[in-house]
Amino acid sequence: MTRTRLLGWLAMAAVLVAALAIGVADDGGPRTPEERARSLAETVACPACDGQSVAESDAAASRGIRTLIAERIDQGASDDAIRDELVATWGESILLTPDSSGVGGLVWVLPVVALVLALAGVGYVFWRWRGMAAVHASDADRELVDQALAPSTRARGEDP
Amino acid sequence: MTAPVAPESVPPDPGDDVAEAPPRRRTGLIVSAVVAVLAIGFVAVLATREPATDRRRDSPLIGRVVPPLAGETLAGGNFDIDDQRGRWVVVNFFATWCVPCRIEHPELDAFNQAHARAGDAVLVSVLFDDDPASAREFFDGNGGDWPVVLDGDGLIASAFGTPKVPESYLVTPNGRVAAKFTGGVTRDGVDRAIDQIEQAAAERGAP
Question: Hey, what CATH class is B59-204 in?
């Protein structure tokens, strides 16, 4: 029983480590200019429509921004430089990904805090459950159960 | 699992609803009063609002050097805003499919005619998400002989941060963006803005 449980934990740890490794390794690979333009366009809000990114929208303004992004990538600009240029023209609201400093930083911090709290809560509940399993029935409890079962067992003629 | 049977599973007595129904007449009165107040408020907001034309908007570009605006014109020539230093420039983004653009066209024409004679301001339009043939037809039918720059890839509109038309920008004689207008302009509105900005500059003692 304990060995099966240990194997279960090991399997979970292996999956977690593998997922993290793949997630980290995938980020740094070489990307084509089109892929860069596409992923950058996904972080830019369409200025003429609600809730769409420049990558998904076909509004004239979005097409213009896509052309601008492609042109800047061609000229060798970094992603941050392109984003800065867009903010300088359109204002901070042009970015779909909020700023990581100031009040905007809360957007990034709060999910992590929530995750940690949730994990702590789950851990606490598990710990309490384990504690409850260790409670043993007292003699008085057994007597109560026997009393409750007595009429039914007698009715079936199983009274010892 | 031996969950206790929930008492809610018993169907409610239909008589209860009738006994507890609110007085309908009073509810109707309250609803009509709320709707009336909302309608009056709505009319008041619309009536006291500034007009849809000549509406000045904030833009990150205001006070900065005007973005590059150069390219082929509808008439087949070339236009570069950098050649216009020393004069006020009104940069107008428009499309022939845009109704407010068609409405502001005579106003732009009047502004252009008045200032072409004086030589103190020029008007340039940028075609936004529209084809040159429609624009040519529109100008032939409605008049106007100021340069119309083609922006097929939308890069000029992107550089100005123009999401929709009509939009106009007022550029000072030293090449800085001074104002942004959305929803169409009038000749008087633009002239007033130029006067205000010149007056403010004179008060500050700046050229």
Answer: alpha beta
For the beta carbon of residue B71, count every other beta carbon within 10 angstroms.
Answer: 18
Nearest to B74 by CA among B139, B159, B158: B139
* Inter-chain CB proximity A64 and B155 less than 8 Å: yes
* Closest residue in chain B to residue A87, using alpha carbons only: B60
Place of tokens 């700023």: A99
Give A102's DSSP letter. G
| Nearest Cβ partner for B129 among A60, A88, A91 | A60
Q: What is the pLDDT of residue B60?
A: 93
The alpha carbon of residue B62 is apart from the nearest alpha carbon of chain A, in Å, by 10
Question: For chain B, what's the residue count?
Answer: 207
Q: Please tell me whether the interface predicted TM-score (ipTM) of this complex is above 0.95.
A: no
Q: Could you report the per-residue pLDDT of B1-32, keeping only the tens digit for each?
A: 444 444 444 454 544 444 555 667 888 999 99
Of all residues in chain A, the one with the smallest CA distance to B155 is A64
Q: How far is the first Cα of chain B from the last one, in angstroms, to the nearest whole number?
A: 87
- Domains in chain A with CATH codes: 33-94 (1.10.8.640), 104-155 (no CATH)
By Cβ distance, the residue of A63, A87, A89 closest to B159 is A89
Interior angle at CA A36, CA A34 and CA A38, nearest 5: 65
Question: How far is CA A136 from each of CA A125, A133, A150, B15, B131, rounded to the nearest angstrom?
Answer: 19, 8, 22, 52, 84
Instruction: Check: CB of residue B50 under 8 Å from CB of residue B189.
Output: no
What is the per-residue pLDDT across A75-91, written as a single tens digit (0 to 9) for each?
999 999 999 999 999 99
Domain borders along chain B are 59-204
> Would you tell me how many other CB atoms lie within 10 Å of the CB of residue B165?
25
State the smallest CA–CA distance between residue A129 and chain B in angstroms. Answer: 19
Whether omega for the bond prior to residue B166 falls within 30 degrees of 0, making it cis, is: yes
Phi and psi (nearest 5°) for A44? -110, 135
Q: How far apart (Å, rounded) are the C-alpha atoms in residues B92 and B124? A: 6
| Residue A132 CB contacts under 8 Å (≥ 6 apart), including other chains | none
Strands ordered across the beta sheet of B148-149:
B55-57, B177-182, B167-171, B88-94, B121-127, B148-149
